[in-house]
Protein 1
Amino acid sequence: MGTSCWSPLLCLLTAALVAADNDTSTVPLSDEALLQYETTEGPTLEPLSVLTGSAQVLATTLPPATVVPTTAVSTVTTAVTTTEVTTPLMGLHFPPRLPSVHHHHQGPRWGPYFEEGAEPQNVTARVGSVVQLDCKIGMLHDKTVTWMHRKHDSMHLLTVGRHAYSTDQRITLSFRYPNNWRLQIKYVTRRDEGHYECQVATHPPRVKKVYLRVTAPEVVIMDENNHEVSERYYKAGSAVELTCLATQVEEPGDFVSWRHGDVTLAKGISMNVSLGAGSVATTLTVDHAQKQHSGNYTCAVGSLASATVAVHILNGELPAAVHHGNLACEQPRPAWGWVALFLALHIAVCR
C-alpha cells in the first residue's frame, strides 16, 4: 500500500490485515475505511491492554464485507506484547516480557548435610561386642569430618578425616562408600558409654550427636539370709549355701556358672532359675563342708561379669563370728569391765 503509517501500531495492524486478506481471500479494505484511520489525530501511546482492545475495535468497525480472522488479532497482540516498541516522537519504549524463572532453594543442603537428619540418636551395645556409629553426610565437598567422645565436661578427639587420632586401638574409622563416616568400637566396655559427636568443619560446625548405652550383666552373691557377702566363715561339718543373682541377662547367650578357684563346678549346683525380666538365680550347696572346701567361689555370666566370695571352713578356730548353718556363734568376751566395777564397789564399802 502506498499510504504512509502514522504510527507503528497502525503499520502492524495494516500488515496483519493484509496477510489475513491474502490467506482468507476476503474483500480488501476500502479507501474510505483506510482514510478514516489515517486522518485520526497524532499517535498516542496506550497501555498494552488498551492496544490489544484497539485491535478488536478496529475489526468491528470495518465494512461488513471485510472479515478479520481472529488469528490476525492474536498475531497482533502477540507482536505487541513481545516486541519492543519505540516511538520516534516521545522516545519511550516497552521492554519485552521475560518468562519467569523459578529457583528451587534447598536451604542448608547447598552445603554439607546429614542424610539421616541431625536429630540425636540412641544406640545400645552389649559389653564385649562391636558397635558401629553411622554418620552419612551429603555434599561434603572438601570439608573435614571428626568424631569426638564427650566425657563429663571434656571432649576427647577420636578421628580426623579417615585417620584415627585416639591411642585406643579398639577405635577406628570404618568409612563406607560413598559417604558414611562410620565410627567403629571393638570389644565395648562400660567406659565407652556416653555421648559421641560427628562434626563437619563448617562455620559454625554441623554436629550430629549419638548416645551410646552399654549394657552388661550385674552379679551379686548372697548368703542364707539373702545378705550380699564377699567373705563367709563356716564351722567344719556345717552346710554351705550361697545364691548367685544375675540381672540384665540376655538368654540364651549369657550362661551363669560357678567356679571354685579355677575349676568349674557341676556338682552341688542348682539349675539356673529364671526370675523373669532378664534375671537368673542359681544356688551353690555344699553338705558337710570340710577344710578342702575353703577358697574363693566365683559366680560368672560368661566373661561379661562376675562376683566372688571367700569361704573359710574352720576346725575349732573361733574368729569374731563363725557361722554354723544359719546360726552365728559369737566368741565369749572377757568381762573385765564387770570385775573392775565390783572391785571399786568393794573398796568403797570397806572404807
Protein 2
Amino acid sequence: MSEDSSLPQHHVQSFCTRPPPPLSCPKTKICSYRGAMGLGNKYVRLNVGGNLFYTTLQVLTRENSLLKAMFSGKKEVFTDKEGWILIDRSGKHFGSILCYLRDGNLNLPKGRQAVQELLAEAKYYFIQGLMELCHNNLQGNKEQPLCEIPVVTSVKEEERLIQTSSKASSNLGPVVKLVYNRSNNKYSYTSNSDDHLLKNIELFDRLSLSFNSRVLFIKDVIGDEICCWSFYGQGRKLAEVCCTSIVYATEKKQTKVEFPEARIYEETLNTLLYETLPLPDNSLLEATRRSYTNCGSHSEEEEAPGGPEPRERVRRIHVKRYSTYDDRPLGH
C-alpha cells in the first residue's frame, strides 16, 4: 500500500471539497469624528458617492446642518480602512455645497434641472441658506417658451390675428398659416399620406423656430382643408399651397397628402418682402409671382376687381387639383 493510500479517507475529502472563500466587501467602521481623524490630518477626507473631496473642519461646521452634526461628534460617521469618511450620497453637486459653505454664496449651475438637483442635496444636508437661494432662482427664472403659436378656432379670430400681426414695427407683418385636419376626409389615405402630413407639421415647427421673431405663425385645426399653407403680407393673402389631392385607385378614390418642402420654404421667404414699409418695387414683387407651370405644378392668379393690380393678386398653388370633393368648398 502506497503512502497516499495510507492517508485517512476524510483527509482526502477535505482537500477536494473545500469551498472558495466568500467575496469580501470593503471594510468600514463606525466611529465619531474624532476617531476618524485619529491620524491628525490637517484636512478632512470625504468620499461622497465615490467622489473624493478635501476640506477643513471649519467649512463643514460653518452652518447648522447635517454636516455640522456629523463633524461635531453629535452623529456617527462611517470610514473605510484608509480613513476616508463615507457619505452615501451623490457627489455630483457636493463641490457646489462646499463652495457655498466657504463663501456664503454661490453661482448656481445653468439649467432648471441642475438647480433642482442642487436643491435636493441642500435639503438632504439641511443647508437653509442654499435652499432659499435655489428656491428664489427657480421662482424667478421660469423657463420661457421659444416661440408662441396661436391656434385659431374661428374665422373671426384668424382675421383679427392677421390684421393685427406685427413682429418688428407698427406695420402689419408677414403671416404663415397651416391648416391641418386629418379627420376632414371621406376617403382612405394613401400609404405615404400620414408620413407627409407629419412632415408638413414638422416643417411648420422648424420654420416657426427660425423666423418667429419676424413672422407670425398660425395653426388652424378646424379648416376645410386637410393640409394647406397660406401666406399673408400687410394683411392680404399672397399665396396658398395646397398639399392634398384625390387620386383614383382601383374602383375607389383615395386622398393623397404631398410634402412640397422647397415650395413652402420659397413662399415663406417671399413673405419677408412684406415685413416692413415701403414695399419692394413692382418688378421684384412680380418676380416672386412667376408661373410655376414649368415645374410640374398648377398655379393660378386672381385679379382684384377693377383691373390687374399686381399687389392684389393671390397665387394658389396646388400640388394636384381636386377633381371633385362633393359640396365641400376649396380653399379656406
Protein 3
Amino acid sequence: MIRSLSTLSCVSLALSGFSCKNRHAQSNMTSNMDSDKEEFLREFGDDYGYPNAPKNIDEIRATEFKRLDHDGLVYLDHAGTTLYSETQMEAIFKGLTTSVFGNPHSQSDSSLATAEIIREARQQVLDFCNASARDYKCIFTSGATAALKLVGEAFPWSSQSTFMYTMENHNSVLGIREYALSKGATSFAIDIEEAAHDGGGCKSPVSSIKVLQRPTLRRNEATLLEEEPSGNAYNLFAFPSECNFSGSRFSLHLVNTVKDDTARVLEGSPYRKGRWMVLIDAAKGCATKPPDLSKYQADFVVISFYKIFGYPTGLGALVVRTEAAKLLKKSYFSGGLC
C-alpha cells in the first residue's frame, strides 16, 4: 500500500512538473504570438481589421465568434464555407419565431408577404453584383452546383457548339462538359497566361490576355467536324473569378475579351466563330470581391451564399443576363419556380 502511494506520489509530482512545463510553454507561445502581432500591426495596422468599421476584427471575433476561442480553434476553410455570426443567427431565429411565412406561390396574406421578401432578396443580390434589374434576373437555386447544372441542362447546345473552360475550375463546372458533349458539341480546356491573372486589382490590359488551347473532346470521334463551325452556333466559356484551390483571381477582362474579341484570343482555332457567351463561377470570389456586372457583362454568374455568410447551407443563385435567359431551353417544370 505504501509502495503504491509512493508510486502515485511520484506520478503526481511528474504530472505536476509536466503541467508546469506545459503552462510555461503555452505562456511563451502566447507571448511570442503577442509580439508577432504587435510587429504585424506596426507594419499593416492601418489596413488591418476593418479600421473604419463600428467594430474591429478583434472585437468581432470576441463577440460574434467566441466559440472559436472557447474550443481553441483556428478556422481557415473559408473556401469551403465561412462561419455564421451570432448576431446573424439571433436575427434569423427571431424572424422565424415572430413571423408567419407562406408558400410564395399562393395568394394568402402570408404568402404575398413572403413573395415580397423574396423579391427584395433578389434585388439585393443584383445590387451586390451592381447589376441592373432590367438587364439581369436572379434565380435562386439549392446551391452553386445546382446553378451550374441549370446552365448545362438548358444551354442551347448543338453539334456546332463549343464549351471552353479554364484549367483552374471547380469540378462542378466540369459537369457542364457532359451536357455539351451529349449534344455533339466540342469541349476543351485552356491555359491562360500569367498576365490574365489578377493578383490584386484587375490590372491586366485586354490586349495581354492570351490562351493556350488544350486537346479537344467530342463524345463520338466519328462526328468530328469536317469544316469549321458556323457563326450561328452558341458557345460557352466558363471561368472562376477566384480559384477555390489556389486562391488566384482571374481578370474579369476575360468576359469582354471572349465576347468581343474571340477571333484574336483563339487565333488559328476553328472554334473562334459563333456567338460566345460567358459564365463566371463566383461562388468563391463573391465572398471578397463580387463581379461588377455593369462593367463586365457576363451572361451567367453563379453564387453560393454559405461561402459568403455561412448559414443557411443549400442556397445559391444564378444571375443571368435577360437576353441570355431567353435562349435557355428548360426541359423540366415543377410546381413553383424561384
Protein 4
Amino acid sequence: MTGISGIFTRAITSIKTLPPVCGYLNNSVLFGAVRNFSVETSKNMKFVQFTHNDCPCDVRVGYLVEDKIVDLNKADPTLPTTLLGLLKDNAIEKAKKIQPSDSNTLSLCSVNLRAPIHGMDKILCIGLNYKDHCSEQNLTPPEVPIIFSKFSSTIIGPGDAIKLRDSTKKVDWEVELTVVIGKVASNVKAADAYNYVLGYTVAQDISARDWQKAKNGGQFLLGKSMDTFCPIGPCITTHDEIGDPEALTIQCSLNGEQKQCSKTDQLIHKIPKVIERLSSVMTLLPGDIILTGTPGGVGMYRNPPEYLKPGDVICSAIEKIGVLENKVEKFQ
C-alpha cells in the first residue's frame, strides 16, 4: 500500500490525482496528512467515530494522531462515547487535552470508521450555491440562499452503501463541504459565526432528481431524504485546522473518473452569512450540519445525463479533510 498511500497524500494536499486512489482506500490512507501534534500546544484535531468488529453497535469517538485513533472515553471514562455527546456535555475542550498513550490508542486498521457524527437534530442544505453549478444550468445565482433539509435518518458513513430504491430512476451525486455546529446558535451575526463552528466534513447530497423535480410538486424533501442519501466523513476537521474554509479544493469521482472539481471560493453565499440567516429563524444546536452546496459537474446536467447505478463507487474529497468512499447498491 505504500504507493497508493503516497498518491493519496498528494491528492489530498493538492487534490490533483484523486481518480487513481478511488477503490483502493483503507483506513490508513483516508485522511491525508494527519499531523503529529502535542495536544497541550494545539487544539487542531480530526474527530472520528468508529466501532470494533466484535461490537458493531457501540459507536465510539476519538481523534486522529498519524495512523492511530485516541479513544477519548477509554482515556477518560467520564467523557461520553459519541461526538454528539461531547458537544451536548460541552466537553470538547476537555477532550482536546487528552494525550495519546498506549492504553487509549488504537490502530486505524483495527476498527471500522462510522459517520463522524450522528443523531443530530437538523441537516440543512443550500441549493444553487456554487457559481459553476449555476453556470452549468444557465441560471442567475440566487440573491438569497435557497434552504432545504434532509432527515437525519439519511446519514451513513465511510464505506457504507448508498441504496437505490425501485421508486427512483434518476439518482445523482453532489459533493459538498459541510459545516458542523459546535454550540447553540441563535441570532448570530456573521462576524461571530465561526465561533459557533466545530469544524467541517465531506458530504454527498445524494439526490433522486425525479422526486426532487417532478414527483413531489417541486418540493425537494422526498428526493433528498431517501434512506442512505447523506454519506458523511471520514472525519470532522476542526475549524482552526482548516484555516479558510472558502479556499479549499473539492472533488468527486465516479468509478475512478473525475466528475466534479472546483474550489470553495466558488461559494455564492458565504458560510458566516448562511449561519446568520439560519440562526435568525431557528436555533442551531450542537451537532447540526449545514451542507453548503455543490459545484458544477453533477450527473443531471451532463450530455447525456448520467445517474448512479448498483455497482458504482463514489469518491468525494475535500482538501484538509479527507476522502469519503461509498459504493452503490440496490435497496433490498
